[in-house]
Amino acid sequence: MSSNTFNSQSITIRKGISKDLPEMLELFTSTIDEVCQKDYKPQQIEAWKSGAENKERWINVISSQHVLIAENGNQIVGFCTLDKGNYIDLLFVHKDYQQKGIAAMLYHEIEKEALEHDTKQITADVSKTARPFFEKMGFHVIKEQIVHVRGIALTNYKMTKKFS
Description:
This protein is an alpha+beta fold. It is 33% helix and 34% strand.
């Protein structure tokens, strides 16, 4: 898709439903593949993408988390999920729609939802790739952490944003 035909007014945000899962999983794996290469080694990328195989986890995401979908026409171009009203579990934007404000649109809607839960802060475990975005949104790193996925170590960051 050529980026000059895109404009952010064509993006709609809606609540996610279970029939969105296959497209969400496809977006999850292709985004990690394409967008996270500069920050993670190939075996780390493969381990991270294997999370898509945990069907139970994804069914749980769609049934128990607040899921927002960004669409351009009838294509899912991003999604963000909020767990327990104060934890951003997933935030992914389609590889062809990076740097167009979609993550910010999703994040601002998720933050509104968190504030409705009267939360004092919002947290996320953030990849190296996503860290600059979260910092731009007002998050701070609490700690760098190593997570093990299928025996492969991945660095990410526990981040938080406090609301006054």
